[in-house]
């Protein structure tokens, strides 16, 4: 047997509580080769081959009651330290690493973490125990045990849950821990056998790609480093070559980003939207028509179908679930691409987009995209102060809202966190029946470069009607120029945004967004200042509305447009567009255009009473019964504005497994720290195992003690 491994006892002899038989998938080919591998499939429950060009890496793992045995094997080109990591998004930020290396002639395993793209630091609380380690002729293998939930005192370790998560691997050139020489990422569920992704070989697909657009800000744009470009796509045109009819509804089963090699580093995010009407031309707009500047989407194209950001992976729907596109009323799609070009490089052409796998045989369930929008513009959030190490915002969708808009429990498929460069942390907490269930998707440190859509935690695989959902975003603005950071579309501004794939789809009940109450509370609570309004005991609200309609409704930010309410109500057709937007703005005298000052002033006072109640939760002067204003609103709820709901404290961490002490209980198995390189002597009358690095476990049974050597 190569590599100097000698297995004297099977690990399965020590693990009576776990299954013996394992179904080996295609990814596991070579995992348990008796010539090259020190790992035996009877000893290790699961194996997963990791994609790597030069090292032929395999990961082995066995989930136990409250711990996990984790093994690593690189078949070639390893001469120094090696590591496996667990992460919330795919990058180094916030990742926890298990590094194994030789130090002073002894093999050691270290629990490390990285909060940025810097060398991972040692955790103050070490939560890993080495089982064995060996390096010979360019090959490296080791095994460790880690707790399923360490409750690390600094929050550095991820809880191991029954969910697919991002893992990392890395190797170094020496045993002095330093910068890696190779690394990679992969997906794994350490509580289940590896799953093969469904094959796409037989699936029909079409591609929606930007038509060789120039990466350049279009006319009307405000930031040349952040161009937003859109293109239209007519499913009638696509269907001619793909074999489906223009009016046919398709169910999408998988979505894969397609990135142009030459420009992929400039593609920040892409969003595919469906348009709501059929046969439109948008003033001559046709298939592959480009909108050179489209920070704001066309009004009829707002139904999100596919969000993707840097670091995102394929979106794959369950077997009987499809994402609907097309149909008689949804023939057109729009792809919006946000490019980031900080150096203003010229002449770049892009053909990035999405590959859409689909079926014309409609599936049992339809998926949708839910949005929690804590802030993407100045109407939703005030600016963040600059120079702050940690500044946070929160946005809650109350239980009364979800109880009214969801008609059944919703199955959550994937959750994406999206902020910009100042963002450091995001969470979506769920409160059910007064109990905080915790975070929908764990990510200890947000990474702008790696924005993946990940599975929810097992405890919140569904959202129920009546759930209270709170989105929290945290930012570090210490390096921000100026005195504040605004919310907006450019990379230099900020966002707090979470799209979620789910099913079954809820029509018009799956988007929730923070709103700042637009009406000035002081206008509701204070008396008018003008004598002619004071005489009628009117409010400042009524006076402001009467004197300057654009100022009151905030639709003229530049202050260039000014007219009073009497002029509007007596102006006839000149103000017809205004009345479409605000149908209750004037009294009935508007129809005959003969309104008087008293008519309009009284109407303004009555209208303010309604607005102050609905928008601010206030009574109107001179009524002072309610003087505490609403903090914020939610555009997906009715009523829209409300007082901030109470959010109970998050659940206290419950440790499962304890790897930072000498003895570790694994389903009744005592694991010892064994720091040297000699085999354990069996002693049926002893209740302890003598120390050895590669001999890691002993178990006491009736009248006998079993020992294991894995190297």
Automatic annotation (TrEMBL):
Q: Which residues form the DOMON domain?
A: 55-172
Q: Keywords for this entry? A: Disulfide bond, Glycoprotein, Signal
The record ties this protein, via Pfam families, to: Cu2_monoox_C, Cu2_monooxygen, DOMON
Instruction: List the signal peptide residues.
Output: 1-19
Q: Which Gene3D superfamilies match?
A: 2.60.120.230, Cellobiose dehydrogenase, cytochrome domain, Copper type II, ascorbate-dependent monooxygenase, N-terminal domain
Return the PROSITE patterns for the record. Answer: DOMON
InterPro entries in the cross-refs = Cu2_ascorb_mOase-like_C, Cu2_ascorb_mOase_N, Cu2_ascorb_mOase_N_sf, Cu2_monoox_C, DBH-like, DOH_DOMON, DOMON_domain, PHM/PNGase_F_dom_sf
Q: Which family does it belong to?
A: Belongs to the copper type II ascorbate-dependent monooxygenase family.
Q: Which PANTHER family match?
A: DOPAMINE BETA HYDROXYLASE RELATED (PTHR10157), MOXD1 HOMOLOG 1 (PTHR10157:SF23)
- This protein is called what? DOMON domain-containing protein
Q: Which organism is it from?
A: Cyclotella cryptica
């Amino acid at each position: 047997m190569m590599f100097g491994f000698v297995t004297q006892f099977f690990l399965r002899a020590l693990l009576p509580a776990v299954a013996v038989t394992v179904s080996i998938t295609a990814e596991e080919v070579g995992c348990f080769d008796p010539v090259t591998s020190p790992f035996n499939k009877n000893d290790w429950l699961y194996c997963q081959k990791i994609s790597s060009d030069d090292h032929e890496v395999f990961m082995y793992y066995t989930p136990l009651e409250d711990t996990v045995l984790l093994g690593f094997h690189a078949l070639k080109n390893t001469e120094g330290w090696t590591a496996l990591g667990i992460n919330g998004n795919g990058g180094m930020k916030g990742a926890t690493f298990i590094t194994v290396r030789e130090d002073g002639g002894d093999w050691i395993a270290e629990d490390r973490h990285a909060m940025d793209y810097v060398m991972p630091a040692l955790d103050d609380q070490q939560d890993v125990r080495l089982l064995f380690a060996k390096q010979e002729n360019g090959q490296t293998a080791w095994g460790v045990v880690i707790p399923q939930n360490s409750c690390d005192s600094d929050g550095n370790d991820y809880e191991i849950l029954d969910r697919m998560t991002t893992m990392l691997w890395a190797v170094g050139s020496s045993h002095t821990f330093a910068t890696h020489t190779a690394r990679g990422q992969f997906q794994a569920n350490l509580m289940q056998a590896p799953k093969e992704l469904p094959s796409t070989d037989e699936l029909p697909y079409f591609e929606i790609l930007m038509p060789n657009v120039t990466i350049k800000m279009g006319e009307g744009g405000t930031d040349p480093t952040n161009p937003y470009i859109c293109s239209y796509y007519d499913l009638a045109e696509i269907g001619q070559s793909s074999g489906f009819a223009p009016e046919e509804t398709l169910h999408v089963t998988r979505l894969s980003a397609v990135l142009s090699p030459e420009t992929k580093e400039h593609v920040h995010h892409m969003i595919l939207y469906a348009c709501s009407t059929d046969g439109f031309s948008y003033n001559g707009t046709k298939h592959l028509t480009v909108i050179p500047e489209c920070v704001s989407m066309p009004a009829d194209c707002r139904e999100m179908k596919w969000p993707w950001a840097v670091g995102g992976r394929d979106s794959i729907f369950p077997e009987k679930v499809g994402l609907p596109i097309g149909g008689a009323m949804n023939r057109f799609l729009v792809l919006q691409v946000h490019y980031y070009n900080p150096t203003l490089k010229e002449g770049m052409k892009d053909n990035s987009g999405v590959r859409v796998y689909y079926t014309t045989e409609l599936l049992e369930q339809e998926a949708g995209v839910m949005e929690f929008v804590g802030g993407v513009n100045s109407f939703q959030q005030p600016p963040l102060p600059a120079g702050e190490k940690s500044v946070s915002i929160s946005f809650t969708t109350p239980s009364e809202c979800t109880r009214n808009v969801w008609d059944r429990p919703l199955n959550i498929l994937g959750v994406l966190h999206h902020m910009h460069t100042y963002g450091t942390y995001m969470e979506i907490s769920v409160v059910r029946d007064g109990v905080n269930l915790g975070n929908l998707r764990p990510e200890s440190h947000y990474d702008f470069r790696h924005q993946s859509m990940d599975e929810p935690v097992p405890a919140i695989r569904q959202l129920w009607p009546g759930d209270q959902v709170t989105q929290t975003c945290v930012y570090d603005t210490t390096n921000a120029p100026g005195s504040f950071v605004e919310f907006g579309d450019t990379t230099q501004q900020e966002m707090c945004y979470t799209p979620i794939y789910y099913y079954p789809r809820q029509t018009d009940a799956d988007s929730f967004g923070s709103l700042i109450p637009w009406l000035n509370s002081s206008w509701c609570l204070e008396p008018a200042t003008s004598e002619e309004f004071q005489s009628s005991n009117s409010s400042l609200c009524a006076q402001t509305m009467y004197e300057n309609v654009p100022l009151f409704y905030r639709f003229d930010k530049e202050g260039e447009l000014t007219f009073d309410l009497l002029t509007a109500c007596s102006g006839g057709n000149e103000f017809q567009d205004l009345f479409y937007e605000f149908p209750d703005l004037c009294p009935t005298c508007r129809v005959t255009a003969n309104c008087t000052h008293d008519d309009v002033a009284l109407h303004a006072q009555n209208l303010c009473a309604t607005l102050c109640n609905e928008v601010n939760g206030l009574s109107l002067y001179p009524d002072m019964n309610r003087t505490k204003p609403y903090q914020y609103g939610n555009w997906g709820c009715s009523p829209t504005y409300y007082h901030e709901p109470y959010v109970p404290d998050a659940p206290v961490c419950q440790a499962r497994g304890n790897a930072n002490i000498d003895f570790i209980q694994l389903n009744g198995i005592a694991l010892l720290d064994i720091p040297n390189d000699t085999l354990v002597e069996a002693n049926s009358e002893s209740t302890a195992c003598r120390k050895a690095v590669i001999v890691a476990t002993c178990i006491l049974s009736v009248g006998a003690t079993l020992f294991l050597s894995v190297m």
